[in-house]
């Protein structure tokens, strides 16, 4: 999600010492479907160029995909703000989603789902004179198309919320390139088309802007299920036309 934060970025380097875990268990699966999940620690959480957490961040997810292609999941992350209370410097984002995935050819696949964003202590955000309000609970229609090493994404906001207008559209293009020694080079660009339906809570100065460009490396640790990553994020602009900071994000993820 998706708070338009204007805080100065703290460039954190998260050093990880020796990690000792058993080899990951294979995904729980049957003829009916697959259950998978992940646990991650990141040096910070950057979303569409904006700061969601400028401190070390814990994230976790769980997803079940049926053999028919239907899937549902949950994902959560710690935040450095409360969506409805500016006096608090911490919170938790909860994402619930359900959708359908399919394959069009051996190299071409797609996923589409509806996701709802909920926040601890979430509710309403009011204008200064309390004559207008917007909910902190958001919903988006998320679509992705994958062809070989390329991923294209189109995400549309479905409701007016404190951080977005219904109809706001986020576009993304990502590429993954295999390197020697099991490393992978990852690159992506994300841009937004903003719908101007503003009020005293949310204002828009840009109809279109690039939000971020990411360049990074990732590498799994043999068959442990653990993957390390490092991404440099070039921040560009937000919906107000304000410059976004650059960030270095280090991560360690356990997939099961």
UniProtKB/TrEMBL annotation:
UniProt-listed InterPro entries: CHP02001 (IPR010239)
Record key words, sorted: Signal
Record has Signal as a keyword: yes
Signal sequence, renumbered to the chain: 1-23
Superkingdom assignment: Bacteria
NCBIfam families in UniProt: gcw_chp
Full protein name: TorF family putative porin
Species lineage: Bacteria, Pseudomonadati, Pseudomonadota, Gammaproteobacteria, Moraxellales
